[in-house]
Amino acid sequence: MKLLSGMALASVSGAALACATMAAAQDAAPPAPPSPALGDSFVTAQRRVERLQTVPMAVTALPAATLETLGVTSTLGVADYVPNMIGSNSVGLTSANTYTLRGLGNGDTFATFNPAVGTFIDDIPLARQTANNFSFFDLDRIEVLRGPQGTLLGRNTTGGAINVILAKPSDTLGGYLEAGYGAYGKVEARASIDLPVSKLLSVKLSGYYQRDGGYARDTTTGQRSNGEGASGLRASVRFELTDQLSWNTSLSYLRDTGANLLNFTCDPNHPTKCDGRFTSTGLLKNYDIAHPSPFVALGVTGRKANFGLGNTVDTLIYASNLAWQGDGYRLSLITGLVDTKQKSAIDLADGRTPLPGVAVPVPPARGLAVGYDSLTDASYSQVSQEAKLDGTLFDGRLDYVTGVAYVSEDNRTDFADIVNLGGAGPGTPLVLADRTARTHTDAVAGYAQVDVHATSALRVTGGIRYTDERQTFGIADNRAGGSFGLPGTIPSSQHSKLWTPRVAVDYQLPGVLLFAGASRGYRSGGWNARATNPAALLPFGPERAWSYEAGAKSEFFDHRLRANLTAFWLDAQNTPTTAAQLIGGLPTFTTQNAAGLRNRGVELELTARPTPRVNLFANFGYQHARYRVGSGASSLRAQQLACLGELAAKRVPLATDANAATDCAAGIIDANGNIARPVRSPDFTASAGASYDYPIPAAGIVVQPSVNVVYSSSFETGAANDTLFTGTVTGANGTVYPANPFGGGVITGSRTSAYAVVNAALALKTDDNNWTLSLECRNCFDKAYAQSEVFDYTYLNAPRTWLVRAKRVF
Prior knowledge:
810 residues; mainly beta; Maltoporin, Chain A; 22-stranded antiparallel β-barrel; 5-stranded mixed sheet
């Protein structure tokens, strides 16, 4: 792998430098005057190329040029500009993103939990969330499909899908070189070159590298953490074998070494010092003879016992699309191979004990190597194969897409959980569990969709997919004589057969497309594999969701204003929820199909070009997402009644002593005994921005200032909405606790207050667009807000960053 990486990087660098030299010696073509009209956006949301404005569904399209202006360089940043979507790094991992769209999402990366928002790269599904936050290089566009996509994309798309479309090799010699330097010592480089070898063969070589020292300072060890460490190489080949037969194939290698560790705006070791981001764990990044691993002495098994603080994920992706273009049809054979390796050691408690509660809402810094540590040594392997046929019949009166697809996964996760029970000195570390889980999935599907043009303006769409999916799960104790395993009373396999249809109708008026439709999606079930008690390794079933949409896509003023409006009603059943809580003072994870989810809302996307050099956009989302408890949720109703009884007896949620109300602030029952709000589902989201191209003809440059604002109303990040507030509470035995779970000022936990983040950039471009120099800042006013929560510890967004970037296109 190292040899492959070195050869590819050398090829990219050398070829790009040679081409840059040749290009500089040539006369630049005069720049074309800017067009006053908005350009057409083309998408493949329905598995064929169409204009965005003719697709009868809610789609956000972000071309590479738009993302560059916004300063978005990874998939995580895309969520900021999609209505009713929240994106964040998963707890502990910058390589993994948690997406929540229209109230549906999943924050766990374990192989038995599946995303509600699927990620696809050139039609290849990424089944695991562990490596879905990759930096962009050679990007053509990103499409975010809102709502269930079960018909054409299949499993694990109840909330929607993110389609990443990479640029294909060009038949023209060219490319780019890019370098940047920024906050926290960040160094960034990207390069790409297109090499047209012959009329039959074109090659594209690309690579990127980024690294920084990390924005969080550990005042216990002196380490820095939460840095961006990412690199990637890609080789793509396009064969035009005949006029009808083509083959696009690529091989990509991605590495991410970043970690999203628990950090604070004030130093836990010096609470009055609040001039940055701080951590205080005593867990080291590297061990040696003088500083041995704390896990080996505890009896933790395998390679993971020597892992240092951090996360490393290596991913290899092979994609192939062999296509035959006939008269009015296209047959595509799409093959994907994804292999991911993960090594991580994350301290979820920042070297502290106990975990936060009403008795100790802010545990003092202790700098322990073991607070609550999670170790993972995992491999994920996926094979996918699809045969897709699309085309047109009856003189264009009927369009169709049909195909068969197969996905197979083999996943192995060697993982351990270690908690510190407290006490003097290093405390009392306890290995809760050390086990290896294996999962296997086979899913076979067939699908078809037809669009009938009843008249020149009226189109009717119908489609359906059938999926047959089998999953198996096994788990075994890693320690000699250990008894951790799957009890015989818990099934080790699940078999699901599902139909996911779609219907839609649209009518084209001058400049306006009216549409309405209904679609169904599903998310695979799984097992509560995070449990540290074998009896809690319970299965949960697949989630099913119906979505009903109606909207209008319109363009006005000679295509200078584009307005897309969608109203939706979403009804999901068996929505899986994962909650982290303390039971008997020990951390525990539970996942269950506790309820359904119902959501309704409106989404508006505006794009305008009032003059040829001014670009404006504004996106707005409103939703009302709530869990829906049906008559079948007897256990949830029983828990709710038990919680109300505990509150009446003056027992206290988030306490760990005899006063504890254990049925409150647990699962999806909040501290007041109500059904909790769904996580990361704010009522309002919005983003707006502007850019202006100011030409200076005498200097041959264009100055482009740009600014955008991202806003979200308040939301919850923990399933039980468990938050510790200022103000005391008194228990049944008269104990007065220094914090309460009911209301007041937020100390720590699930609650995220409303926030607004400002991003800005100033770019200087040559008028032929061959050179660009830019100064960018993200989160320019250093706004801190909660993105995730585990055991009432709040995980914050990244602080303010800046970057100076230079780019040469040739």
